[in-house]
Write a structure and sequence with these properties.
Shape: flat
Number of helices: 13
Number of strands: 0
Largest sheet: none
């Protein structure tokens, strides 16, 4: 809930202060300036020419917020809580970051690091191992920071240089396939979709609850097997039993085989 009070002339449109340092969705839509986010992500924001030297930086603030989200989840991140870690007020952070929406964008950029370490392209320019390396490393980032699923929900977002470096690396890995730019981008979407899907499965899985659900489902299907014959047969064949197969590797092999088929079909 917003903390009501007078703001200096002109600032009401830029900054909306709340008890937890987060603006409501409606306020975000009204006050969020994509150019300001771009400037933050690319380090192109205007630097103060007068006054004391800033004690913090957007990157330091983002790194502290990442540590908090890793420990307690994205919902625990607020401007006031992050500010507390520096021993300052939430208002002090607004000098560097306009609000939580922009802070989350900076957090995503922070955890992307310097981009994936890609293998050198061999003489045959084979692409499968490069795509596999990219996908595994991307999955590692999501596994290390489960809150990324929420922070990078499929929507139109402003991308920083680190995020674009990942996209660039994926497209470069696919260049030897001979696919055109649009096709390479579609394959990229399949790869990032696989990574997110596996990360979501891991985030949702709880051993005790899963076992309880299995018991309920088994009892239910035993009483209604005739209504769901294909599902009943699949369960009897062990469809939902652990099989030791890595879902990321399984899905990745299917995508790579599909790309191979497209290449072969054109030759």
């Amino acid at each position: 809930m917003p903390v009501k009070g007078r703001a200096p002339q002109g600032s009401r449109e830029r900054i909306v202060v709340e008890r937890d340092g987060v603006r409501s969705k409606g306020q975000q839509d009204e006050t969020r300036d994509p150019r300001a986010v771009l400037a933050l992500l690319w380090g192109e924001q205007e630097q103060p020419t007068r006054g004391p030297k800033p004690k913090l930086t957007p990157r330091r603030i983002a790194a502290a917020a990442v540590e908090l989200a890793d420990r307690e989840g994205l919902d625990a991140v607020s401007m006031s809580k992050v500010a507390g870690g520096f021993g300052v007020s939430a208002m002090a952070l607004y000098r560097y970051v306009p609000g939580k929406t922009e802070l989350v964008e900076l957090m995503v950029e922070e955890v992307m690091g310097e981009g994936p370490e890609m293998p050198e392209r061999g003489e045959d320019g084979h692409w499968r191992e490069a795509v596999r390396a990219w996908t595994r490393q991307c999955a590692d980032v999501y596994a290390a920071h489960p809150w990324l699923l929420t922070a990078t929900a499929l929507r139109r977002r402003v991308l920083g240089p680190r995020q674009l470096r990942w996209l660039d690396a994926a497209l470069a890995a696919l260049e030897p396939t001979g696919l055109d730019g649009a096709q390479r981008h579609r394959v990229f979407l399949l790869l990032i979709g696989l990574v997110r899907n596996v990360a979501q499965q891991q985030a949702d899985h709880e051993e005790e609850q899963s076992a309880e659900w299995d018991r309920f489902a088994a009892d239910l299907l035993a009483r209604h097997a005739e209504r769901f014959p294909a599902l009943t047969k699949a369960i009897a064949d062990g469809a939902f039993q652990p099989d030791g197969i890595d879902p990321l590797e399984f899905g990745l092999d299917r995508i790579l085989d599909g790309v191979e088929a497209v290449i072969t079909g054109r030759e």
